[in-house]
Amino acid sequence: MRIYTRSGDKGKTSLIYGKRVPKNDVRVEAYGTCDETNSMVGMALSQLVNETWEGKQEVIDALHKVQTILFHVGAELATPSDKEVMWKLKQEHIDHLEETIDRWDQDLDELKNFILPSGHPAAASLHVARTIARRAERVTISMGDDLTNPLVQSYLNRLSDFLFVAARYVNYHLGGEELPLHTDI
Amino acid sequence: MRIYTRSGDKGKTSLIYGKRVPKNDVRVEAYGTCDETNSMVGMALSQLVNETWEGKQEVIDALHKVQTILFHVGAELATPSDKEVMWKLKQEHIDHLEETIDRWDQDLDELKNFILPSGHPAAASLHVARTIARRAERVTISMGDDLTNPLVQSYLNRLSDFLFVAARYVNYHLGGEELPLHTDI
Amino acid sequence: MRIYTRSGDKGKTSLIYGKRVPKNDVRVEAYGTCDETNSMVGMALSQLVNETWEGKQEVIDALHKVQTILFHVGAELATPSDKEVMWKLKQEHIDHLEETIDRWDQDLDELKNFILPSGHPAAASLHVARTIARRAERVTISMGDDLTNPLVQSYLNRLSDFLFVAARYVNYHLGGEELPLHTDI
Ligand code: B12
Ligand code: B12
Ligand code: B12
Ligand SMILES: C[C@H]1O[C@@H](n2cnc3c(N)ncnc32)[C@H](O)[C@@H]1O
Ligand SMILES: C[C@H]1O[C@@H](n2cnc3c(N)ncnc32)[C@H](O)[C@@H]1O
Ligand SMILES: C[C@H]1O[C@@H](n2cnc3c(N)ncnc32)[C@H](O)[C@@H]1O
Ligand SMILES: [Mg+2]
Ligand SMILES: [Mg+2]
Ligand SMILES: [Mg+2]
């Protein structure tokens, strides 16, 4: 099958189960922004390929899991409210993020201030992914009653906190610089 | 001439031919998002500088062409409906994307599933560019009657498919990892 | 204190001084987009870590300063109109951008045309940051009367010009390719 069908050239597209909607439908905006978050997580992964440290595999596995669950979030968003979601988002997916945050955070200094995003390119990518996840969260708020599963917003909310901790954790292990904000300038 | 003029500090700016519009006009949003797509394609190019393989130049040329045509798309979007567009987008620009997709796709395994965006940093950047091109496409839908040339939406639609294939093609040549989605987790 | 509080899981959040607003409030969209710009500047910084040239520290300092001032911009956007802003944006922050643009621009060839964003990964990241800063600027236009300090729009307007010059300046010093647009294709 060809990747391009030309059937979306007039501005309409299909949800799961086939319902046609305009491409600027808020649902499409929402799962499109999850796709963008997913791709930026992929950028972080791509920046880790040539690095080695004990515990690297745990980070990679966690990021692959995030990518996978973002397809579950996407399925929730792309399925009309009256149809069954085939890849259901579950409470355990949020629990898993929280457990990982708690475990990684133990190694990190406690923060009393904002930090300037930077350090290793993988960490910097995770900061960018964090801000795109927050954009995705904002779009889901605009869905109103079209969003039936409240776990979607919880997951996206926790995801940006996970990505913040992941950025710091990568910098900690790879010697990436973490600068606190200084406002007295 | 100075790059900054301060004339846009009050929130208005100029289209081609000089008409003043607010910076949050849907036209400005549309060509601004093309500019963002263009810059992310530039990120992909920047990640290829130190790589070598037979056929690399063909990829670089295709990406430079995309950047050039995005300025044509931008010109279509920044020209008021009653004026002549000076850099016209043509059907042959879409045909060229399709031919390139078809040629590159021959080397790639057929997909039966979504893939997790990642691999080489250039490929990951192309995945991100793909999702920004789709955002640009969504904005053009919101332009309604302000968008007179239907080729703009066709081009942006095909562009995201091209960028998907380009990401896979770069990973194929540079040994970037391509993981299929597994939803049984 | 834990990074995640779960209190935003229902779609509301707090401004500075505590007022609750929906997460898709235009203020939140505005400072969220500044956070995204900030993170992409961090990506540029992360790509400079392994480079050396005389004058590198000046570029790093200027980018750290931009990140710091973006928190001031964020504070302006996150403070309700009837409350005092604690990290005030000042005219001197804009002056500083202009002075840096003027100084760096002297080393660069004058442009008679658009350029294709690319070159060194840090420069490419600065081009992307430039387009996100412009997106942030567009969101602030949508704030209407909620935006009381006119310096916010001036700063964001100048910031995208600064980031354009910074991208060119980094390419100039690191031998990154700068291609002019050719529309005769
Ligand atoms: C929603 C959706 C998306 C969402 C994903 C939603 C989510 N779950 O997160 C997003 C925006 C991410 C997306 C992206 C893309 N999509 Co899409 N998507 C769909 C849609 C509407 C539903 C898919 C879905 O989630 N199904 C839910 C599951 C439970 O049902 P399923 O039928 O078993 O799903 C299977 C297939 O749909 C998919 N699949 C099967 N063959 C292929 C082939 C390709 C190339 C791809 C990418 C997927 C794919 O794998 C799933 C099995 O695990 C389908 C069209 C449709 N109505 O089915 C298109 C569809 C699968 N997408 C398609 C395409 C081309 C893409 C993109 C390449 C577009 C682009 N240029 O960016 C990307 C690929 C992203 C990636 N990383 O691989 C095409 C695939 C055409 C083909 N067979 O070659 C389809 C069929 C639409 C079409 N043109 O008709 N998509
Ligand atoms: C639409 C537009 C854009 C769109 C592009 C639309 C598209 N086609 O895709 C986008 C959003 C991408 C854009 C970006 C920028 N733009 Co602009 N843009 C314009 C605008 C309104 C029309 C340009 C156009 O497409 N003309 C269509 C062609 C057919 O007409 P043309 O007159 O022959 O176009 C020539 C020049 O406009 C341009 N050019 C000539 N000198 C210079 C100098 C510079 C520095 C640049 C960037 C371009 C440029 O090259 C074209 C010849 O091929 C002009 C203002 C105006 N009303 O003309 C500003 C203008 C060209 N832009 C300007 C600037 C500063 C920029 C940015 C640097 C802003 C930023 N900080 O990001 C970037 C540069 C991006 C890049 N990669 O080079 C300035 C240039 C000032 C100067 N001479 O130094 C102008 C004149 C606006 C102004 N301030 O008055 N822009
Ligand atoms: C607005 C805001 C933002 C804006 C920034 C606005 C700006 N100025 O540019 C943005 C969107 C960037 C943001 C991002 C984040 N934020 Co915030 N933010 C706030 C908010 C509402 C106001 C902060 C502010 O600007 N205060 C203005 C100054 C003048 O007042 P201040 O009280 O002295 O500010 C101090 C602290 O707020 C902050 N601080 C103190 N302890 C900690 C701990 C952490 C982990 C962080 C990040 C900050 C922080 O440092 C300031 C001193 O310089 C507060 C909640 C609140 N109502 O106070 C949350 C808050 C500070 N943010 C929080 C979090 C978790 C984050 C993010 C990690 C979220 C994410 N996942 O992305 C990021 C971190 C970004 C970074 N680079 O460090 C938490 C911190 C919880 C904690 N103590 O562990 C808070 C308290 C909200 C909450 N959950 O209750 N945020
Ligand atoms: C840390 C601060 O970030 C803001 N906040 C909470 N959620 C989002 C989001 N999705 N996008 C942008 N900003 C957000 C709130 O003001 C919070 O207190
Ligand atoms: C692959 C799937 O992506 C969705 N789709 C089509 N066009 C866009 C776009 N511009 N942005 C986001 N999603 C889109 C449709 O649901 C399509 O079937
Ligand atoms: C260089 C050109 O970019 C456009 N322009 C000005 N400000 C913005 C912005 N925030 N976003 C997108 N485009 C903008 C105007 O058309 C200007 O002339
Ligand atoms: Mg949150
Ligand atoms: Mg499409
Ligand atoms: Mg401007």
TrEMBL record, chains A, B, C:
Cobalamin adenosyltransferase-like domain mapped to chain residues? 3-170
Q: Which residues form a coiled coil?
A: none
Q: Which Pfam families match?
A: Cob_adeno_trans
The record's GO molecular-function terms, alphabetically, read:
corrinoid adenosyltransferase activity
Q: Which UniProt keywords apply?
A: ATP-binding, Cobalamin biosynthesis, Nucleotide-binding, Transferase
Pathway in which this enzyme or protein is active: Cofactor biosynthesis; adenosylcobalamin biosynthesis; adenosylcobalamin from cob(II)yrinate a,c-diamide: step 2/7
Q: What InterPro entries does the annotation carry?
A: CblAdoTrfase-like (IPR016030), PduO-typ (IPR029499)
Q: Give me the reactions it catalyses.
A: 2 cob(II)yrinate a,c diamide + reduced [electron-transfer flavoprotein] + 2 ATP = 2 adenosylcob(III)yrinate a,c-diamide + 2 triphosphate + oxidized [electron-transfer flavoprotein] + 3 H(+); 2 cob(II)alamin + reduced [electron-transfer flavoprotein] + 2 ATP = 2 adenosylcob(III)alamin + 2 triphosphate + oxidized [electron-transfer flavoprotein] + 3 H(+)
Question: Which protein is depicted?
Answer: Corrinoid adenosyltransferase
Q: Which lineage?
A: Bacteria, Bacillati, Bacillota, Bacilli, Bacillales
